[in-house]
Amino acid sequence: MKQWRNDLARNRTLAWGDVDLDPERLKGLFELYFVQNADKSRQRKEKYEEYSLAFALSQMFSPKQKELFKKRLEGLPLTKTEQEYYSRSVKKKVVALANAELHGLARKLLEK
User: Fold this and answer.
1) CA distance 68 to 60
2) Mean pLDDT, the chain, whole residue set
3) Residue 3 phi, psi dihedral angles, 5° rounding
4) Contact at 8 Å (CB) between 68 and 94?
């Protein structure tokens, strides 16, 4: 193993029985595998966060309320009816969600 490590460090061909391994190719394959694995892990984490947020939104809001929430978040204009519905129902839930004290109480309940 020490010989292989030294050969890799000095970019010398690795000999293993009848097979000679190119150190540059070996390093390239390792880096490619490592980068791909890191990308897959990052993508998996992003998908999990996206699904987690979608699930949480579906627990609090109806489909129409989620649509208005996202529309408002993106700064898109709301019709008069949508604006009225938003202010009557969605905004109240958003204000409650933004309350830090309520968030702390919910965390305490989940810890019990």
Assistant:
1) 13
2) 89
3) -65, -45
4) no
